[in-house]
Specification:
The protein is of the alpha/beta class. The chain contains 7 helices and 12 strands.
Amino acid sequence: MRAATGGPERSAEMKVFIAGGHGRVGSRLADNLEAKGIEVVSGGLEDGVDVISGKGLAEALVGADTIVNVLNTPRFDAEGAISFFEGAIDNLTAEGERAGVRHHVVLSIVGVGEGDASEIGYYLGKVAQEKAVRSASIPATIIRATQFQSYIPVLIDQHTVDGKVLAPRSFIQPVELEEVVELLAEAVTTLEPGSAVEIAGPDRFFHDDLFRATLADRGDDREVVTVDGQEPLDAMVPRGAFRTGTVRYPITGIPTA
């Protein structure tokens, strides 16, 4: 991972296209950038823009300096996820190049850049996304984040089988979403294209401990069963330099790893 290098503030008269601008991340980023005086164009199905088919994309990118790609997919199978993430990069690159876009910022996941990411199809899709954007013609910045703190209850549901939560004894270091949004905004306005920056929360836990504490705090009596993980213990937490968030997980007393 190349260290991030700062550059001059680029916010004056910028126009940023956010692919996925109405989602959990994109909507917050749009508000953040607009508060900085930056013109934002949202690119989603709600705006008549389909990045995958290309419908409306060329028109939406007219005059844009920067693309921020926070698109997501519900597909967890490898074929579906890879097709989605690679296809989005290909279309954004092709139309972005024609529009004169000079910078492509992509939100990815901590761990997928290490070469031994989870074999879950979704993560393989993110690996493919990073490879595609790094080899594309538009200079790119990759922002890798750990799991969002607010997403932990959903993650618990995804690990639930027959009423029991199957949790690996592996590391997790959840980060506050707003801190990820601020780093994305910094990538747009300050970071030099070509950077790769990782961000994680201030505390590292084991999945099973975090899940048990979260369920107890919510009054949820589901049993958490510790299982062997299929990936390295530290597969989804930073292994090198990273930005440390300042917002702690909202439940206290959880043992740290």
